[in-house]
């Protein structure tokens, strides 16, 4: 009897073990089937079905790094970045030795513009594998976007030691060095990037800008011409070449014959762009700029008329930018049409983004037309836009003069006081301030200002005369 019971117990345990083994095998088979189903759905770009399948795999095995990783990749493909980040983080936690979840998590945080966090994740990756040049470059890029230029350069040093032919790394190095005003080093890095990847347009654009800032006209023009050849479908590239010729023609360091030659080349290049894009406002604006520069350099009425014709084509439309309208106003003023120039510059101050000099031109034309309040407000708005620049004192003096012409002495006093506050002691400015204070009826303040001015220039005849007026 006892032997029968023991035998029965053994048989029952064997049956239970077989059932458990079968269940585990079946569960594992179902898990793999879910993964396969998700992969198949993803190949067909059925992202919702893929997520359902991977979620089924996770329900069966919540310790599966692979299932979380693939679901995270699917969420990322759908643009659901936060959901993707959660799955990548879980995958990284489940397998702390795996680098792929960290790589993808860093990419997601970068896409979310959480650059500091992205950099931390890439650093974690590199602690597991310090030979990954691509991830070292991503670390440099994240640091650069986070404003950590020194940290980006340090990461790039590592990147280039691992892979000295990575063009993108040299390009980023050029940007970092440019930001640090290390122009020569930046130029070398960008030149290396272009040599390694001749079709890299962003690197060539930066290099062209750098050459332009160094007045290396030939090299700048060469880069812009190559870019125009690489990107033939964009007329803006041809316009950039034309404007480069125009800048060369305006360089006073160049011989007159070369300047004239490049002015003609600018016109020819932009004329070719106009044939390709006859309705493109950008081309008309650039062509008008070139003809206007030629007109001013040569005092040529024919060139001025051509500038007016080109700029009118775009200036009379809603597509005109503030910069184009400012140019159009200059051409109108040069042709003697002050009233229309004033209206054009007023429009230029109302188009965004605003060309700051439009306010200065508008103020000049408005003053000539005796529109004093408009001129004063234009100068004030210009100052608010550019901040307290080197021209503040001159501008404040001009605002004060306009205010006095409008019999607004208190405003004149305010602006002259501000000018004196930021200027090295200027006897002329103190004299103007005293005159304004006197017109405003503040005789004690005027007397004090004259006294200060006479301390600097005790024999100044105008000040001595003003002093007598103040005391009488």
Topology:
Elements: H1 2-43, H2 47-60, H3 65-77, H4 81-94, H5 100-111, H6 115-128, H7 133-145, H8 149-162, H9 167-179, H10 183-196, H11 201-213, H12 217-230, H13 235-249, H14 256-276, H15 281-298, H16 301-315, H17 322-334, H18 338-348, H19 357-368, H20 372-386, H21 392-405, H22 409-422, H23 427-439, H24 443-456, H25 461-471
Q: Oligomerization state of this entry?
A: single chain
Rg, Cα atoms, Å:
36 Å
The residue-averaged pLDDT reads: 92
Q: Overall 3D geometry?
A: elongated
Count of individual helical segments:
25
Helix content: over 70%
Assign the CATH topology of the domain at 234-320: Serine Threonine Protein Phosphatase 5, Tetratricopeptide repeat
End-to-end CA span: 140 Å
H and E string: HHHHHHHHHHHHHHHHHHHHHHHHH
Query: Approximately what portion of the residues adopt beta-strand conformation?
Result: under 5%
Structure commentary:
It contains 25 helices and no strands. It is elongated. Residues 18-24 have low confidence and may be disordered. The protein has a domain at 234-320: Serine Threonine Protein Phosphatase 5, Tetratricopeptide repeat (Alpha Horseshoe), CATH 1.25.40. With 472 residues, the protein is mainly α.
């Amino acid at each position: 009897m006892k032997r029968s019971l023991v035998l029965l117990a053994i048989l029952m345990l064997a049956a239970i073990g077989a059932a458990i083994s079968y269940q585990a095998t079946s569960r594992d088979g179902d898990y793999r089937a879910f993964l396969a189903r998700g992969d198949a759905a993803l190949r067909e770009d059925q992202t919702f079905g893929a997520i359902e399948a991977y979620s089924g795999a996770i329900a069966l095995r919540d310790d599966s790094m692979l299932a979380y990783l693939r679901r995270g990749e699917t969420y990322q493909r759908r643009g659901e970045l936060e959901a993707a980040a959660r799955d990548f983080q879980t995958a990284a936690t489940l397998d702390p030795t795996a680098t792929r979840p960290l790589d993808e998590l860093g990419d997601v945080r970068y896409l979310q513009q959480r650059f500091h966090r992205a950099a931390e994740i890439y650093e974690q990756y590199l602690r597991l594998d310090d030979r990954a040049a691509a991830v070292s470059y991503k670390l440099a890029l994240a640091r650069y976007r986070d404003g950590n230029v020194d940290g980006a350069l340090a990461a790039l040093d590592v990147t280039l030691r691992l892979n000295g032919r990575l063009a993108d790394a040299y390009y980023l190095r050029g940007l970092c060095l440019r930001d640090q005003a290390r122009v020569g080093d930046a130029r070398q890095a960008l030149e290396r990037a272009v040599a390694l990847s001749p079709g890299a347009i962003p690197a060539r654009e930066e290099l062209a800008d750098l050459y332009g800032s160094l007045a290396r006209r030939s090299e700048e023009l060469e880069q812009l011409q190559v870019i125009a050849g690489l990107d033939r479908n964009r007329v803006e590239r041809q316009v950039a070449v034309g404007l480069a010729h125009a800048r060369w023609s305006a360089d006073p360091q160049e011989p007159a014959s070369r300047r004239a030659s490049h002015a003609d080349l600018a016109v020819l290049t932009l004329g070719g762009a106009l044939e390709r894009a006859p309705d493109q406002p950008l081309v008309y604006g650039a062509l008008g700029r070139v003809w206007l520069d030629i007109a001013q350099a040569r005092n040529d009425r024919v060139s001025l008329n051509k500038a007016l014709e080109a700029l009118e084509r775009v200036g009379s439309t809603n597509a005109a930018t503030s910069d184009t309208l400012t140019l159009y106003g200059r051409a109108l003023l040069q042709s003697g049409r002050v009233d229309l120039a004033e209206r054009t510059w007023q429009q230029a101050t109302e188009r965004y983004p605003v060309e700051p000099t439009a306010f200065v031109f508008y103020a000049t034309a408005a003053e000539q037309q005796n529109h004093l309040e408009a001129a004063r407000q234009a100068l004030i708005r210009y100052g608010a836009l550019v901040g307290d620049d080197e021209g503040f004192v001159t501008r404040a003096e001009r605002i004060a003069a306009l205010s006095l012409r409008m019999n607004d002495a208190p405003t004149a006093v305010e602006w002259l006081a501000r000018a004196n506050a930021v200027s090295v002691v200027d006897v002329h400015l103190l004299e103007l301030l005293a005159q304004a204070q006197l017109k405003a009826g503040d005789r004690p303040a005027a007397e004090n200002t004259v006294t200060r001015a006479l301390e600097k220039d005790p024999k100044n005849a105008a000040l001595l005369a003003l002093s007598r007026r103040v005391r009488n």
